[in-house]
Amino acid sequence: MSSHAEFPLRRPSVILSSFDIYESKSHLCIVGSNESEGYYRLLRLTRAAASAAADDKCSSMVEDDGVCHSRVSIQQLVAKLLASGMRLLVANVCGILGFVRFTKGCYISLVARRRPVALLGGHYIYHVEDTRLISVAYRPERSEVEDRSIATFKNVDLTKNFYYSHSYDITHTLQKNVALHHEPERYYHSMFVWNYQLICNTASAPLALACEWTLALIHGYVDQSKLSMFGRDVYITLIARRSRIFAGVRYLKRGVNDAGYVANDVETEQIVTTMELTSFDMPYNRPFSNPYYTAYVQHRGSIPLFWSQETSGIAPKPPIEINVRDPYFVEAARHFDSLFHRYGTPVIVLNLIKTKERAKRESLLGEEFSEGLHYLNQFLPRGKKIRYLAWDMSRAKKNRQEDVLAILEVIAEETLSLTGFFHNGPELYSNHLRRHRAGGDQSPLRTTPRLQTGVVRSNCIDCLDRTNAAQSIVGKVALAHQLYELGQISEPLLSFNTDAAMIIEEMYHDLGNTIALQYGGSHLVNT
């Protein structure tokens, strides 16, 4: 499936994390520095060009001198700016989100305040706490339409579950970042960059210039917890990345679009580390060689068919309608092609919707989805076919004879055995000995990193309550294997009454509530 992005967004070659903005009637000057204030960059913006721009881009005004300045050099430059009549407009800006143009002039969108929420490999991940919009034009004439446009733009509350990191690419998984570390040019995963359009508003100038000065913002959920085990601290980090493509709220965004992107598409990554070393890098070794990091990724997304629910009536459960029945399931094929590209194979579909109903609602989708997967699998080679598991979770919960948690654990173990998970180091020799003594897997000691190949794709109708319950159990089972891989436990099993299981359950519950508020407008109901 071709990329939705019009332009690839390259990661900056120089990391800037603090900005001061100076102004005069004719120019804005942005001075950016790194965290330790060891080097500085200077960006000039022509205010006349910004106010005269006729199109929707904000590019003719931007000029970078291309020099990394020292502290002494930048102090001399700032002194010259102040002597020429410039004044300090705003200091200690945390980041630049990009540029936006409404009916007149251009504006810079800024991160004014931030809060650290996680530390990965020595890189902080921040939550946006406050933003600011600054006009590039000097004292622009503001029309009523312009004011309304600005107010509408500010209604997008970027202080609710938007995250970024200056030095770590949180648009990619840890496994992907490790694989890409040797690339001379690295690019963000643009489907998760929510300020993508703001960055691209300088597109008629070199886009690389905009990427050097802006940061990539993800929307979703980030949390980190510390667990003490046998005198060692274990850190569990959850990162949920919501796709910006075909994004929207429940009932307005359902199913799939023409390009194969689904509603409520969320990638969840579970990173577990003992942090013997904070950095991803081992001393005197290659970058990203720290063996104490593990990660597991799962996916949720709406059923990739053209379907909707009419909400104009008063029915508590609006009827489900399949709007278009495509005998070739083209859009579903595009969707799964994207999953193959992102995660590899196998892709395991865990469909949790109802299978038996008096009046068909959910089961209507289930039958069509099953038929579509059967059709698509005809064209996939053996070993690459989509694995489909349909389980009516609602019905199982009502049946006292069925242990829902036990069933989910069995499903999780089976899927994990198929996809594996990421471990950035060799197998522990003690684990190798346990395998051989158990008489099962007799393969030799693994000396290279372990990779996750494939993904579990979970869904119910909204991809909220049932999906989150299933993902939390899959996450618990994965956590046991991650802790075992790191040598924290003697077998890859966690009972529900352990601290580790309770912590991961609480983290997934908070994640689920956050995703539910973003997509459905309310908290989880059944988890």
Question: Could you explain the architecture of this structure?
Answer:
By secondary structure, this protein is of the alpha+beta class. It has two domains: 199 residues, no CATH class; 301 residues, no CATH class. It is built from 13 helices and 19 strands. Strands 6, 7, 8, 9, 10, 11, 12, 13, 16, 17, 18 and 19 form a twelve-stranded mixed beta sheet that branches. A five-stranded antiparallel beta sheet has the order 4-3-2-1-5. The protein has a two-stranded antiparallel sheet with strand order 14-15. Strand 6 and strand 7 form a beta hairpin. The N terminus is likely disordered. It comes from Coemansia thaxteri. InterPro entries: Fig4-like (IPR043573), SAC_dom (IPR002013). It is found in: Endomembrane system. This is Phosphatidylinositol-3,5-bisphosphate 5-phosphatase. One of its GO terms (biological process) is phosphatidylinositol dephosphorylation.
Annotation keywords:
single chain; membrane; 527 residues; SAC_dom; 29% helix; 12-stranded mixed beta sheet; disordered N terminus; hydrolase; 13 helices; alpha+beta
